[in-house]
Amino acid sequence: MSTRLATLAVIIATSLLGFASVCRADTYPIGAKPIADIAFPDAWKVKTITRGLQGATKDDEVYLWAEIYQGDALDDFMAEHDAYYKKQGVDISSDDPKTENIKVNGVPVVLIRVAATWKGKPTVIDYAMFNPAVKTGRKLMVSYWASPEGDKMYEPDLNSILSSVKFRE
């Protein structure tokens, strides 16, 4: 398990015990028919996208997407992400990704880190696949792209964002 995934698991677990958020944040509904809400730090730029929200740090070191999808459409959904990264010049390794199963606010989550490079240098691409077991079959994927430096610098923000996810259904 990567250090980042281990740290994330510990931070999420401790945040559930009542630790305060790292910084002030605004809460946003995810998607047109929200099944969940997520909080982004005030310093982040947040905008609505087709299936949810996109957040970015002011210096564009980190991009994060929170998107609702139908559980049976995961392959198509991931193909869209793969095409986006390819268009951006990101090379995703064919190596097996690193995964970890955790719970966030009682909801099962699979954390996934894929090996990738951008412009020949390492880059960070993570996914957090939330499975809230709702009757509609809708799920939440939080995906994340950062430079290694941005990953370290904004780790407290990222952990706070992920631990803020609360489901409505």
Task: Describe the fold and architecture.
With 169 residues, this protein is α+β, with helices and mostly antiparallel strands. It has one domain: Protein Transport Mog1p, Chain A, CATH 3.40.1000. It is built from 4 helices and 11 strands; from the N terminus they run H-E-E-E-E-E-H-E-E-E-E-E-H-H-E. The chain has helices at 3-15, 74-87, 148-153, 155-163, and strands at 25-29, 36-41, 45-49, 52-56, 62-70, 90-92, 98-104, 107-118, 121-130, 138-146, 166-167. Strands 3, 4, 5, 6, 7, 8, 9 and 10 form an 8-stranded antiparallel β-sheet that branches. A 3-stranded antiparallel β-sheet has the order 1-2-11. A hairpin with a 5-residue loop joins strand 4 and strand 5. Helix 1 (3-15) crosses helix 4. The longest helix has 14 residues, at 74-87.
List the helices and strands and how they pair.
Elements lengths: L2 H13 L9 E5 L6 E6 L3 E5 L2 E5 L5 E9 L3 H14 L2 E3 L5 E7 L2 E12 L2 E10 L7 E9 L1 H6 L1 H9 L2 E2 L2
Helix pairs in contact: 1-4
SS field, number of helical segments: 4
Report the top-level CATH class.
Alpha Beta
**Compute the gyration radius: what is it?**
15 Å
CATH topology: Protein Transport Mog1p, Chain A
Give the strand content.
35-45%
* Average of the residue pLDDT scores: 86
At a glance:
Helix content is 25%, strand content 43%. It is α+β, with helices and mostly antiparallel strands and 169 residues long. The strands form two sheets. Strands 3, 4, 5, 6, 7, 8, 9 and 10 form an eight-stranded antiparallel beta sheet that branches.
